[in-house]
Design brief:
The protein has seven helices and no strands. By secondary structure, it is mainly alpha-helical. Helix 3 runs antiparallel to helix 4. The chain starts with a helix and ends with a helix.
Amino acid sequence: KEFCTAVTNDWINIDDQLGECLHSISNIRVRLLLESRLVDELLRRENLFRCSAPRNMANFKGVNASTVTGYLTLDDINLTFSHDLLQHEKMISAVRKLMSALSEAQEYLGRQLDEALNFHIDYSTDLSEDESLRSEKNAMILIDDMNDVYTMLSRELYRKQNLVTLVFDTVSYVLQSGSKHIIVEDSHGMNHVDILERVVKEWPRGYEESLIEMKHFDYMIRKCDP
């Protein structure tokens, strides 16, 4: 009972929160990428405006590419960029904490599994031979189910740790984009937005490459937590 409660209330709940955080980070990175491109475009237009403006700039005092084109000013965009960058930093910190909590939840499940096995061994010694055989059969079925759930979640945790590593490894891409307003890509030509979109797509437990067999998983959870 306690094992199943820990699976659903702790492990699954934390995993769902991580999925929401990663989705938020993906949205933030899309905005950051757009803002970087807006800065590039605004700078290009301002340079073009300066080159094409008459020599007598007194007639154009207070006029720039922003006012001519109706674009936001550089200050407007940079302020928005800084805000989104701060939100990105906060969400990355939240993901780190949740991943730590997910690892702790997995360790707790391991302890629960060990305790269940030890309890079964101690309890069986106090039963008659017939009772012991029946009890051992039922208990071992339950423990096998718990072990299957624990194993699937262990493998899924490892898969998600690798996905989160991609997120953390590309934080520097975001920072470089912020300081230089350039779009940084990895060796495969993927920028920080592409990588987050991939992580968000592959994160769900129901994803085709997930290491949790959802039908079997749900069946075993129902069995141990009727």
